[in-house]
Amino acid sequence: MTAHNEANPGDIASIVIMSGDPLRIKQIKEKYLKDAKLVNKIRNIYAYTGTYKGKRVTVMAHGMGLPSMGIYAYELFKFYNVEKIIRLGSCGAYIENLNLLDIILVENSYTESNFAYTLNNDLLNIVNASSDLNSDIMKIAKEQNINVTKCNVLSSDCFDWYITDLQVVLNRLPKQLNIVAAEMESFALFYLAKMFNRKAACLLTVVDSHYKKQELSAEERQNSLDRMTLLALDSI
């Protein structure tokens, strides 16, 4: 047990699928897992362990932002011997050819945060997902005829709709990275996976577009991620 996770050793599977919203985790458990057991409820960051198509898996919330993801991913890798984490999230698109409900698989995550420096004295601002885990996901996407865009994202400390001048931020991003969307957790997840020599991936569904000035409602955001969820589950 840790200060943030009451699960006992062995309660959490070696593969964990995470999402920010605890209610989304509860939905995944109810829709897709068999014989699911609640193994954590501290701070309502629900974690359930069950089986999907005979494979043992834990689904767990991680909250919002790099610090929150950083706490839960750190503890899963270090104290619960988790081998793989797939994050399911939402993102905002910055380019014309990304539409609402499109699915993104993150290749590289860039941040302006000092997460790596503060945690590990590491002056690093870009980190990649696990290539073999991404390959597994893309293989399943092809088999299921699901269109997935592999791309680079901004992992931001701030919800981008609230940034005073987003264009200023976009203008200073490294142009060679071709960053096409933003979310708030993947950098922490990928960095910790590298730190502990584990594997991590991040699937995102586009829920708003700054380019097209469109966005889904809060309810639509919570209920629109089934295709991405099934892709992650089938990839394990």
What would your notes on this structure say?
- This protein has 236 residues and is of the alpha/beta class.
- It has one domain (15-235): Rossmann fold (3-Layer(aba) Sandwich), CATH 3.40.50.1580.
- It contains eight helices and eleven strands.
- Helix 2 (66-79) runs parallel beside helix 6 and helix 4 packs across helix 8 (226-235).
- The relative contact order is 0.21.
- The mean pLDDT is 93.
Summed up:
The chain is α/β, with parallel strands linked by helices and about 240 residues long.
Features:
236 residues, alpha/beta, 8 helices, 11 strands, globular
Task: Label the CATH architecture.
Answer: 3-Layer(aba) Sandwich
Biggest sheet features = 5 strands, mixed, barrel
Whole-angstrom Rg: 17 Å
The chain-level mean pLDDT equals 93
Topology:
Layout: E1 15-19, H1 22-32, E2 34-40, E3 47-52, E4 55-61, H2 66-79, E5 84-93, E6 103-110, H3 115-120, E7 126-128, H4 131-143, E8 148-155, H5 166-172, E9 179-183, H6 186-195, E10 199-209, E11 214-215, H7 218-223, H8 226-235
Parallel strand pairs: 1-4, 1-5, 5-10, 6-8, 8-9
Antiparallel strand pairs: 2-3, 3-4, 5-9, 6-7, 6-10, 10-11
Helix pairs in contact: 2-6, 4-8
